[in-house]
Structure of N-acetyltransferase ESCO1:
Amino acid sequence: VDEIREMVDNDLGFQQAPLMCYSRTKTLLFISNDKKVVGCLIAEHIQWGYRVIEEKLPVIRSEEEKVRFERQKAWCCSTLPEPAICGISRIWVFSMMRRKKIASRMIECLRSNFIYGSYLSKEEIAFSDPTPDGKLFATQYCGTGQFLVYNFINGQNST
Ligand code: COA
């Protein structure tokens, strides 16, 4: 798991983070039919999330234009903490396997397995400092651009 996390961190451009507290994290791996790791999700317990503030979109004609705009702009979030349970510290899918709902399936699996006997709602999940891809994915998965984020400043607000 550590080796995969290192590879994912390199791909995400993260500095190598110190070892995480394993008892507080859950790692899900998505294994392809040919037995390769093509997806990885690392989740941790959190207490608070902060809602992304949606910027007003300029008049956008096509889906392509919307994606281009989303990729370029920075994101801002509220300073008001909202209770949350599960933080997605990292979510990654092998580049050749993207847009096949692998990330969506990993989150579904996370929601039913993060806490024994309970199925987390989308409102109880927050994303750590989302990348442009992560933001586009989270907006689609959560059904809103105002999803929860955490850890947006290195080390701050983490649990
Ligand atoms: N651009 C636009 N929409 C996107 C998108 C992208 N790059 N990635 C996901 N979506 C939206 C789409 O609406 C998609 O449904 P569709 O393909 O039917 O249109 C929906 O989210 C579900 O996407 P899914 O197939 O489940 O996501 P994925 O398996 O491709 O994984 C990431 C998404 C973000 C994990 C993947 O792009 C990735 O690993 N990126 C590099 C690492 C990274 O940035 N991780 C995010 C950290 S916060």
